[in-house]
Each structure stands twice: as structure tokens, then as C-alpha cells.
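Morning run. Coffee first, then this:
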Amino acid sequence: MILPLLVTLLAQGTLTHPVAPNTLTAAERAAGWRLLFDGRTLQGWRGLGYDTVPTAHWVVVEGAIQKIASGNVPKLPDGQPQSGGDLMTAQTFGDFELTWEWKVTPGANSGLKYNVSEELSLANAPNHAALGFEYQILDDDRHPDGKLPSHRAGALYDLLPPSDKKHVQPVGEWNRSTIIFRGNHGEHWLNGERIVAFDLGTARMD
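And here it is:
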């Protein structure tokens, strides 16, 4: 069984256009879709390694989840940001189809990670970054990672680049993305186009 999920998510920086709270149509509810984000609170979410959401890193602004820029979060003695930059669902999912909307500010770099091992991630001291597959979210034109094909928006980060038919909306405008993961097969979609497809255990994933 594939579990459909829906969330409006993840812009880094300042959001300037209001977004209506997430809702499902009757047809979507009948098809089994469920909301991960209610458009108002972070209920159902927590930080990696936390029981709650690190509010110094994450807020809800105008109906969207916003990552507070790294320069504006508490710092460690060495000047690095305190941990808390990875937000995760409180519930664990198996096979799924996840759809969300996102936009970025100029030069932003973010991502949506899935199939994450929290145990391995927390053992990855001192960074404690979420270890798993990542759907890259990036301002391709302004961020240095945009020069690397497997680091561009929509890529399976550091593994597979998005297809050439990818279309990304300009900075500040909303994109719609989908991840499908079932068994050993995964797909990334962006604005109605499939841009990445892979199968675990194949040579291209070694």
C-alpha cells in the first residue's frame, strides 16, 4: 500500500505572500490523502533528536513552514549554529507519495530528506545532520551548488541530477513537488514533470 501525504513546506528566509492553510478536497480525502501540516501549527512535527520542534529554527509564517536563516539562530561557542535545523514528522512512514509546495529566497539552499535513520544521524557528531535521501531545494542561479548537476533543485542530492525538462519557478514563486517511494523504487517530480527515477540495488545507485 502506498500512503499519500500532503504538506506545504520549507522556504528559507522571509515569506512575503500569504498562503491559504492546507486543505483537502473531498476527492483527495476519498483517495486516502492526509495532511502533514495544518497551515497553522507544527503539530505532528519535531526536530531531529528532539521530542518537540526547535522554535529557534522553525516557525509558521502566513500558512507555510519557514526555516529561520542560519545567521539568525543561536550559536555555539565556536560560532556554528546550534543543532535543530532538521525538522521531521513525528510519525514514521513506509511506502508513500508526498506532495508539497515550496519557494526560496535568493541564494537559498534547503531540501526534503526521506528514509532517514535518526540513530545514524545523531551518531554523526558534531553535525547531527539527517542522513537519508534528499530532494534538493535550491536557488540554482545564485547558490554555488547550482553549478553541480546532482546538487540542483529537484536532484536526488549528490547522487542523481534532475532531467533537462525540469522547470523551476522564479525565486519567490511557489513550486509543487512530489516524492514517490514504493519498495525499492523512487521518483522525484517537479511542477508536473518526473525529473528523477531510481531503483535501489541497481548499478547507478551503488
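The first strand starts at residue 3 and ends at 8. Good start to the day.
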